Amino acid sequence: MCLIESKNLSKSFTRGSHTFFAVKDCNLKVNEGDFVHIIGRSGSGKSTLLNLLSGLLAPTEGQVLYEGKNINDFSDEEISRARNEFIGFVPQMLGTIPNLSVLENVSLPYYLFKKEESSYERAAMLLDMMGIFHLKDDFPKNLSGGELKRVLIARSMINKPKVLILDEPTSDLDSHTTSEIMDLFKKINGQGTALVIVTHELDILKYGDVLYEMEDGNLTKKRGIK
Q1: Cβ atoms of 155 and 106 closer than 8 Å
Q2: Which helix (H) or strand (E) holds 190?
Q3: Which of 93, 128, 161, 222 pairs as cysteine with 88 (C-beta 3.0–4.6 A)?
Q4: CA-to-CA distance for 25 and 48, rounded, in angstroms?
Q5: How far is CA 145 from CA 97, 141, 171, 183, in A?
Q6: Is the CB of residue 75 less than 8 Å from the CB of residue 81?
Q7: pTM over 0.85
Q8: What does the DSSP assignment read for 72-123?
């Protein structure tokens, strides 16, 4: 089943009198079980594409479909709920809330829409899977970069999303931590969650099964098994 699809997706911006396309006529499919990598130089449009796929930006042209439904037709509440529950998004910049504990940061998306059950058991399980359960009562300022990345990944998974979208999740990590994080992603993918990862690091491409390359806003599929 196709979980996310972009059709002729474009996004333009205007600076002064100049209009340019950061993303131009992009077509992409993410099926159940896919592990997708998107590579490309800085400024090629990768982060803009992820923001479009996540519903954080509205396209200038084209469509983004979640299980066949055009998210441009969603209300603000519907797109917020889809972003909260259908996908898990980990941005390039670390986005923890400093006055919340690790456990509270991970649990936060759970409470954005009313639920009766407690988030504690799932948040604790995710922190344990990430190898940082012992940090549950600590605050972000006390954590290393690799530990913060694990917190963000756990937070993105709290509502059991069908797709994880990650922007440079291993940037600024040493090789050992990068391997640990990528092994975690492979485990998550093996449990049924599709992944879309933007990266500059060619040595991690071995973990994925679908590869796209972005250049000057254009997306080209280079490798795929589906």
Answers
A1: yes
A2: helix 175-190
A3: 161
A4: 13
A5: 15, 10, 10, 17
A6: no
A7: yes
A8: GGS-HHHHHHHHHHTEEEE-SS----TTS-HHHHHHGGGGSS--SS-SHHHH
Pairing of the two strands 194-198 and 210-215: unpaired
What does the block give as tokens for 217?
């806003």
The 10s digit of each residue's pLDDT in 163-206 is: 999 999 888 788 888 898 899 999 999 999 999 999 988 899 99
Give the Cα separation of 152 and 148 in Å (integer).
6
CB 102 within 8 A of CB 151: yes
CA distances 132 to 152, 193, 195, Å, are 12, 21, 22
Tokens at residue 29, please? 């499919």
Beta carbons of 53 and 6 less than 8 angstroms apart: yes
Burial of 138 (0-12, 13-18, 19+ CB in 10 A): middle
CA distance 178 to 127: 17
Mean pLDDT, range 88-115, rounded to an integer: 86
Mean pLDDT across 23-34: 96
Helix axes 175-190, 145-156, angle to 10 degrees: 10
pLDDT surpasses 90 at 45: yes
Residue type, 29: K
**Cβ distance 82 to 66 under 8 Å?**
yes
